[in-house]
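Chain A, query sequence.
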Amino acid sequence: MASIDLPQNGAIVPYELTGTPVPLARREAAAFPRIAYGAAHVVADPLADNDPWL
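Chain A, predicted structure.
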């Protein structure tokens, strides 16, 4: 199975994904009218010593 790293109590711990993936039928998609750039989102450092409400 796959695993992802998640923050827990000030450390990063691996989490093993369990279960069986849900089979989904493929479907035709319409043309995507937007351009995706490399920095489409920002991921915060979960262990950083900061105040996100400033």
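Residues 4 and 15 are 5 Å apart (CA to CA). The chain has no helices and two strands.
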